[in-house]
Amino acid sequence: MSLTLRGGWRMDRALYGREAVLDPSGLVARLTGLAPYGFAGVRYEHGDDPPVTVFTGGRGMGKTALLKQIRNAYRRGTPLALLDCARVEAPAEHGPGWSPVTGALAELAVQLSPRVLSARPVEFPRLALGLAAVTSISWSQEDDERARRDLQRLGPVLATVDESRGTAGTWVGKVLAKLAAQVAEGAAPMAGLLAEATVETVLEDVFGRSQRRSEAWYGAYRSAGGNGTLGLRQLAVDFSQGGPRRSDAEGFLVGALVEDLRRAYVGLTRRGTRRGRPLILLDNAQLPLGRRLIEPVLRDRADGRRDQVVVIAASRDRGHEGLRRATRLRLPEVAHRAPCPRGTDITSGILAVELTPLSAAQTRSLFDRYDPAGRTPPALPGGVQRLTGGRPVGVALLARAAGEAPAGVRGDLTPGALLDLAVEVREDAPAVPVAETLLAELVPELRPDEAAALTVLAAAHDEESARALARTRLRAASLEGDVALRLRDALRGDGWPAGGGGGTGRAFGSGGAYGSGGAYRTDRAYGPSGAIRSGGGGGSDGAYGSGGAAGEGGAPSGGPTGGGAPATGGAAGVAVRTAAGATGPVPAYFVTDPLLRALLLHRLRFQDRDAPEYTAWRAVHETLLAHYGPRPTPYRLRQELALGRPDGAVAALREAFHGPDVGGWLDRLLFVASAPYPRDPHRAGPDPRRAVALGQDPGAVGELGGLDEAATALHQSVRRLLHAVWLLTDPLALPDDDVVERMAYELRQLSGRHLTGSLPLWDAATHWPRDIRAWRAPSSPPGSEDGA
């Protein structure tokens, strides 16, 4: 199942936070022996055994942009090719002599061949012979015209050997005539004989005398016994058989490309005329084609063969089997050296470099580029960092939108308001909606029907509620199986983290309205015993650390670098504390990544442009409300809040306040307040939650009927606190200092009202404002270092 949202945008933009790769002494310079742009000599770090370098990271982490920037930096200084393994398309009506590998090798050769600096163009005689051998394996007199087209497609590769004769096409007619003559003489059109006749003609009509010696290289092929002609025949036979034999033949063709590049650097007539090393860039190398191109290189190097080629690839799947023994480093760690010791496994020849999110400083630099006058709110870069987790594609597009926003609204921009705008990403095209453009970038292969279904399921908190939505609202989409499960697997296959399974029965205990309490968490992983797994948590300096979204300058485990959720605000799941003190996990959101979920929910609310009814939004959340039943559980109260009905949550929190588990009460407050806010687009002025949080909107008087003075005061305090936390933890809003101070005030007041649990409330009053100002979710327990 493929994951339109087709299209997407590609701006030629300056890259931020990638200096470790592109600096004059950065990783690529040390691999190629050349500094970018100026091509000054740089000492090789790995001698004659460079690793295959694989940049890993999820959607939107800038892998493609980084490969393109490397191409731009080196394209005139060394032979270079950039190939997207997802875009090698089969030619129309091709014969069985074409495969994705042969198509990719032909494209690589054509890109690598042109002259650079003072060096001659690179010739590919060995690859050309191998491709010619396999192209005509299925020729027949009845299919002569197709064979002609297949052979003509070899023209660009043969042109690297002799431009005039390779492109002339006269050799094609001679090949076909020779094949027809063989059949007329009674010879069976076997793959080996067809290959031999084709190669013979190519050698005679296209290759010069010295180039003809390249045929001998195929004498090393299986069963050739040192005879190049026999090797090419056997290569064609193996290719025609398919399966493992074809894989062997394709691997040898990869070796032919590498050998041609090596000879270009060490041949007697070329010694000293070339500087540095050639560069092959492979995007989407997690696909089968990527492995079929890289693995032969790794095998040859593991066997002790040395070549001159630098291979740099990009993969969305950091856990790919092909990386099982790779040396793993994070991007900042390769700035000055990148050791990659070779072991016995061939994959030990891979250096896997995990791309890290942009840091807070880098995000601010991007905003300064698009808004040099500083007319947007000072907190806006931090809010975008929180929403995107530092994912470069999100930061870049939202920064551009901020710079292009109408002058009248720039001063009131929030991350949510940026999603409502349109932005010009191409000079020759009209402006496009920011939210839809960014969503298409994160899930570019999503079909329209899948996008519509995922938009509905994004409101679900776990797999069970997603399946309930699918049964109720997506019946037509589930005719071929449970659409929730299909989309779950599609997201996983695209590298996105998976939401948890299970239901709500374990959430917050099972006794009474709130049970025995639950522990709120934000994008942290709880082990089965309740302990926080390593890899999450905020940086030691409070904000996002010096180099990334969280932790040691980057994303926690499973963050955006691996296709997972950035460390941003908003609840991703709940861990439950029972009366005995044990903790158990409760599932995360069905769409776990905060940015992807925010974009889908934006689409759910605004795609129909039916304000103020918001029919789709209301229908989906009403369905979830019914799914959670009539009891005022935190899940139900959260849905009520998403529908703009806070009264039930305020009453339930007030009634539970005097219970013994104050920590659990704070966790429930945070969980309920993680509800998406039912906002209006392009709304001017302050967020309505601000007035409630500051006590400027006391609400309906009727809801307080029957309460004594103390209960009324408690009710109003809880109401103000809930709206303050709801506003301050909303990734689409910006923190407000007045609201932060009021939140702390209300928590201190509540600490004085509770007879036995004043300490957690006082700690929350102390630490939650620090968390909010540092762009972290409120810590639980307050003051713990693992606040998200």
From TrEMBL:
Name listed for the protein in its UniProt record: AAA+ ATPase domain-containing protein
Alphabetical list of InterPro entries matching this protein: AAA+_ATPase, P-loop_NTPase
Domain (AAA+ ATPase) ranges: 49-341
Region ranges (Disordered): 547-571
Lineage: Bacteria, Bacillati, Actinomycetota, Actinomycetes, Kitasatosporales
